Amino acid sequence: MNKETWYFIDSGNCSPAYNMAMDEMLLQWHSDHQIPPVVRFYGWNPATLSIGYFQKVHKEIDLTAVESHNLGFVRRPTGGRGVLHDKELTYSVIVSEDHPQMPATVTEAYRVISEGILQGFRHLGLNADFSVPRTKDEENELKKPRSAVCFDAPSWYELVVEGRKIAGSAQTRQKGVILQHGSIILDMEEDKLFDLFQYPSERVRERMQKGFKNKAVAINELTSSPVSMREVSEAFHKGFADGLDVDWQPYTLTEEEDQLVRQLAQQKYESDEWNYRR
Q: Helices H, strands E: what count in the chain?
């Protein structure tokens, strides 16, 4: 039986606004049946703090620290909490809600899409598993997180190694299409990450940062020798193909498509109205 062919795009390092605009335009083009489902890999230039669609900037984010660390800043079209995109491989998956392999519920769609991430970690030799809340307290923590930091706790079907979160994802559904994107962290700078958020007191920050070490982990903390971005990209290129059971058709945007992405980036994702409106 022939496998379905999806587009695969490796965008390299792009600006924060361009990254979010490209994910949105891929969603639009797939909704319009102009392109098949897509998996995209990308990075960030500069390193960037992205926040979830519903986050309140002035209540949760220390914008002075974002500026002092020379970081980009952008609001995602997806939910979730703040993510420092630095030494990581970022992925996005764009696929129709009515695709035969996609369950109707958000949680179960996470599971299917995240199978590609799971297989990617296994290609790196890491024994990752899906996170599933074991107690009522853990379920409640997912509904009302105590922290604005994404990697502070795993959600349903995110990836964990030895109980610690190793990849974070967020999802939205628009125009009949699922957009899921997320971070696969090679190395993590905890001090820089925790600088970027507001806390009731320094004591609260210290307590949260101390607890964070037991909740999150980066790939190079788990490997006997550091892995390169190229090795990670190759592992997850294979992993998504295995997990989604698809073949790849490499794709590069046309000049016209690239111009549409740049227009959306400028009009929406570079605007204060979008990024700071909450």
A: 10, 11
pTM: 0.91
If 0-12 CB within 10 Å is exposed, 13-18 middle and 19+ buried, where does residue 36 land? middle
- In the chain, the DSSP E strands lie at 4-14, 38-44, 48-51, 72-75, 83-85, 88-96, 129-130, 159-161, 164-174, 177-185, 246-250
What is the length of the chain? 278
Question: Total structural domains in the chain?
Answer: 1
3-state class (DSSP) for residue 251? coil
User: Residue 28 belongs to a domain with what CATH number?
Assistant: 3.30.930.10
71-121 pLDDT, tens digit each:
999 999 999 889 999 999 999 999 999 999 999 888 889 899 999 999 999
Structural domain boundaries, residue 170 = 4-275
Quickly list DSSP for 83-126.
EEESSEEEEEEEEETT-TT--SSHHHHHHHHHHHHHHHHHHTT-
Q: Which residues belong to the active site?
A: 150
